[in-house]
Amino acid sequence: MSPFLGLPRELRDMIYMAVVTWERLRPTLDDTYGWPNTWNLQSGHRGEDGCVFAKKGAPSTCANMLAVNRQVNTELTQAVNRARRAGLLTAKLDCVARNGETFYFTWLAVPIVSRTSPSKFIRARNRSASHWAPKVPAFRRLLTTSCREPAMGDASTHIEQLRIDVRIFDNDLAKQTRLRSPPVQASWAICAALKRLCENTNDHELRSAQPCPSNVIIGTLILNIIPPIVPQTLPTDLRESAQLEAASLPQAVAREVVDVWNKLWAGDSFKARQYRLLLEKIMKVRICIDGVLVRERELKLELERGQAERRRIAMRVGW
Question: What would the pLDDT profile of 185-223 be if each residue is shown by its tens digit?
């Protein structure tokens, strides 16, 4: 470590920034055919709406480097703050949408996450109960004991910003056969991937898709829909129509992704009830098409307003 600290500060800052902003290479369309060695075969048997997850787990964060010594911790923390101000401190998840039927998810980067210890929740719960809980030990024990498992159930991992790039690939683009109807599974596939990330599970098959084995909270979710690339080998007449269809396809997917949050709020279908927990796990959602913002929703504020309205109605009706 002494040779590293002997480098000029400007060079060390460049190394710190490279560590913070490092990410994996994006898989190509050809990589989606490497089932035996690359992708989790059994994920399709879980009813996850055509989702396939890479066997590679999430990349390691820069937490280990933060723990080297005090000087590295200070300098790397400053680099993290600079990256945060520049909007570069973003966890990235890649999604290859092939023919609107199968969605391949791969972790690209998890720069840094913040952890909340379960002991904080336990101490806060015990302090709040100490003011009003009865003095009888049995009742007090009943009121201050959580119904969940006490170990990792109360721990949470906070991801400040998660960006999912949905890259659309359609092998039948030149045939003009599939683009007439939007892929109806795109929104539910994204919800399945988010549920898999946010849900605390001890299933061995799901650990590789999670950056950490605890409850995950996402501050800002960015869903960036990338249009398909029109082959340049098409004839001129087919190329123009294919470009129009390729431009309309991400708009259809964006409308579907925007509408899925209304479906989660309504909870009228089985899938909506299955993925409804995302309303509590995600604070804000931004939906973009090729980097251009289309819609933004403050899910946390909407949830708080809905809960306040429910309490107000309950008090008025006398539930």
Answer: 788 889 988 988 887 543 333 344 444 445 788 999 999
Is 102 buried (19+), middle (13-18) or exposed (0-12) by CB count in 10 A? Answer: middle
- Alpha-carbon distances, residue 226 vs 28, 139, 194, 223 (angstroms): 14, 56, 19, 10
**Structural domain containing residue 220:** 34-58+90-112+158-317
Q: What is the pLDDT of residues 253-301, one digit of tens each?
A: 899 899 999 899 888 888 888 898 899 899 999 999 999 999 999 988 8
Residue 185: the pLDDT is 75
Residue 182 predicted with pLDDT over 60: no
Alpha-carbon distance of 207 to 204, in angstroms, equals: 5
Amino acid at 85: R
Kindly state the tokens that stand for 132.
């009003």
Instruction: Assess if residue 211 is contained within a domain.
Output: yes
Which of 222, 12, 13, 17 lies closest to 112, judged by CA?
Answer: 17
Calpha distance 27→50 (Å, rounded): 18
Torsion region of 99: left, alpha or beta (phi above 0 gives left; psi -120 to 50 gives alpha): left
Asked if residue 5 belongs to a domain, the reply is no
Residues 261 and 296 grouped into a single domain: yes
- Helix 236-266 × helix 186-198 angle, to 10°: 50
169 with 195, same domain: the answer is yes
Whether residues 216 and 136 fall in one domain: no
User: Same structural domain for residues 287 and 218?
Assistant: yes
Q: Which residue matches tokens 């590679």?
A: 56
Same structural domain, 179 and 202: yes
DSSP 39: B
Whether residues 192 and 149 share a domain: the answer is no
Q: Are residues 98 and 212 in the same domain?
A: yes
